[in-house]
TrEMBL record:
<feature type="domain" description="Fe/B12 periplasmic-binding">
    <location>
        <begin position="68"/>
        <end position="333"/>
    </location>
</feature>
<dbReference type="InterPro" id="IPR050902">
    <property type="entry name" value="ABC_Transporter_SBP"/>
</dbReference>
<protein>
    <submittedName>
        <fullName>ABC transporter substrate-binding protein</fullName>
    </submittedName>
</protein>
<keyword id="KW-0732">Signal</keyword>
<feature type="signal peptide">
    <location>
        <begin position="1"/>
        <end position="24"/>
    </location>
</feature>
<dbReference type="InterPro" id="IPR002491">
    <property type="entry name" value="ABC_transptr_periplasmic_BD"/>
</dbReference>
<dbReference type="Pfam" id="PF01497">
    <property type="entry name" value="Peripla_BP_2"/>
</dbReference>
<comment type="similarity">
    <text>Belongs to the bacterial solute-binding protein 8 family.</text>
</comment>
């Protein structure tokens, strides 16, 4: 009787061991930060949904995370630095403003290929495995199309927040999470997106219940009769809304467009938001001294908010931009 019991117990133990082995064989494990299929020891391919320069959807896949990245504009440069990927960057280009102070030390170690658009020659010299930049980089005048670069063995990621069509803050979050997945630093991506969301939520909690202020953007002054402003397609329009404002040109289905001074005067905003960047000559004094603008309520009441253009374009500065706008819209709340 005892022998039969022991034999039965042994069979149960053997069955459990086989079952555990089968389960373990199908598991995907991480080794040194890389996803590995333990059934055959091969690394899983990294794959995400992305877009080409014409906003056609493409599948972007990598056998391993990139080791030699080049960022072609400021916002993707700061995204990678914020994700802790400075050591993976072999080149950058095209700043619109000074790099954020917290990333300057890491940025200064990376070669700057150009102050504006990087040339194909300068890019190829660095032997990159991925390029990250705005769609304007990827045409025959600059680096060639995404397809042409892929044929050279170079992957391309164009941030969704820079593509044609309406832009939203969710596109920025998606870009950050996509890049964190490509480079296998997903925890960093989740943390960064969480911090941005928290900052915006805190701003919105402070302004809760407030009547939206009427806002107009001056992106540039074209001549004595017209200026460039923001329509509802631009991300800036959405950031204004998040900060408690209402874009008086939000009925225009464009990103940025030219309007007359007369049209701005007719809409008479409570606040003027003035974008500035390196090389821009726009200033508060210039706005105040403009004879066409002096009778606007925003000018008479000294309600002019200067914002760095980098905070209004898709990137890690967007939450700071929302906070800056809200402080300009509701200074009494943020004293």
């Amino acid at each position: 009787m005892l022998k039969k019991f022991n034999k039965k117990l042994m069979l149960i133990i053997m069955s459990l061991t086989v079952a555990a082995t089968v389960v373990a064989c199908g598991k995907t494990e991480k080794t040194n930060g890389e996803k590995v299929d333990s059934s055959n020891g091969t690394k899983q391919e990294i794959s995400i949904k992305a877009y080409d320069q014409d906003k056609n959807e493409i599948n972007l896949s990598f056998k391993e995370s990139p080791k030699r990245a080049i960022t072609l504009n400021q916002s993707p440069t700061e995204m990678l630095l914020a994700l802790g990927l400075g050591d993976k960057m072999v080149g950058t280009a095209f700043l619109d403003d000074e790099i954020l102070l917290e990333y300057k030390e890491a940025y200064d170690k990376i070669p700057v290929l150009s102050k504006t658009y990087a040339s194909l020659e300068s890019v190829l010299e660095k032997n990159p495995d991925i390029l990250i930049g705005w769609p304007s980089n990827f045409d025959e005048k600059h680096l060639g199309t995404v397809e042409e670069l892929e044929s050279k063995g170079i992957k391309v990621y164009i941030p969704k927040s820079t593509l044609k069509g309406e832009k939203k803050i969710e596109d920025v979050y998606e870009d950050i999470l996509n890049l964190s997945k490509i480079f296998e630093v997903e925890e960093n991506g989740q943390k960064l997106v969480g911090e941005m969301k928290d900052k915006i939520e805190k701003v919105q909690e402070k302004i809760k219940g407030k009547e939206p202020v009427k806002v107009a953007v001056i992106d540039s002054i074209e001549d004595t009769k017209s200026l460039n402003t923001c329509g509802n397609v631009a991300l800036e329009d959405k950031l204004i809304t998040l900060a408690g404002g209402k874009n008086v040109f939000g009925d225009i289905d464009k990103s940025y467009t030219t309007v007359s001074f007369e049209e701005l005067i007719a809409r008479n905003p409570d606040v003027l938001v003035v974008n500035y960047f390196m090389g821009s000559n726009l200033s508060v004094e210039q706005i105040k001294n403009n004879p066409m603008l002096k009778n606007l309520d925003a000018v008479k009441n000294d309600r002019i908010v200067l914002v760095p253009l980098t905070e209004m374009m898709g990137g890690v500065r967007n939450a700071d931009g929302v906070e800056r706008l809200a402080k300009g819209f509701y200074p009494e709340i943020f004293k």
